[in-house]
Amino acid sequence: MQKRYIIGAGIAALALVGLGTTIGDNHDTVRTVPAPTVTVTPDPVIMRVAPQACLDAIAAADTLDGTQFSALDAAGDGFMAVSELDVDALQAANDRLQGLQQPMLDRSAAYARLADECRAAKGDV
Predict the structure, then answer these.
(1) Each residue of 61-118: pLDDT tens digit?
(2) Cα–Cα distance for residue pair 75/68, rounded to 1 Å
(3) What is the pTM of this model?
(4) Which of 1, 13, 75, 79 has the fewest Cβ atoms surrounding its Cβ within 10 A?
(5) Residue 109 and residue 67 share a domain
(6) Which residues contact 82 (CB under 8 A, 6 or more apart)?
(7) Separation CA 68–CA 101 (nearest Å)
(8) Residue 75 and residue 99: Cα distance in Å, rounded?
(9) Does 17 share its domain with 60?
(10) What is the pLDDT of residues 68-84, one digit of tens each?
């Protein structure tokens, strides 16, 4: 019974070796297939230009953002002064906030006006 398995395994090994040499012999023949010709027509590029009012609104928003950051910074200093019971620092923070009030109102109004102009020009804000 073991002889059959040994003989069967030997035959299988010879078949694999023969198959491997047959496959290995074909590497000298290179078959080339011509590449298909493909014509690509690029899609036209559509560039949208933002209306000037929209660009102005973005610039106004950036300016307003900087003013709001300064106000938050002053408010943070005020809270810190309260936690430390520092009346002078609290007064300085309050003065900074008072000084930023009118510029923030002016910049908010300018942004609102420019944003409305942008929307009227069919732009996005």
Answers:
(1) 999 999 999 999 999 999 999 999 999 999 999 999 999 999 999 999 999 999 999 9
(2) 10
(3) 0.55
(4) 1
(5) yes
(6) 90
(7) 10
(8) 12
(9) no
(10) 999 999 999 999 999 99
CA-based R_g, the chain, Å? 40
C-alpha–C-alpha distance, residues 22 and 13, integer Å: 14
**99: containing domain:** 52-120
Neighbouring residues of 80: CB distance < 8 A, sequence distance ≥ 6: 89
Percentage helix, strand, coil for the chain under 3-state DSSP, each rounded to 5: 75, 0, 25
Give every CB contact of residue 51 below 8 A, 6+ residues apart in sequence.
118, 121, 122, 123
Give, rounded to a whole angstrom, the gap between the first and last alpha carbons of the chain. 87
DSSP for 56-98, written as a single string: HHHHHHHHHHHHHHHHHHHHHHHHHHHHTT-HHHHHHHHHHHH
Residues 101 and 60 in one domain: yes
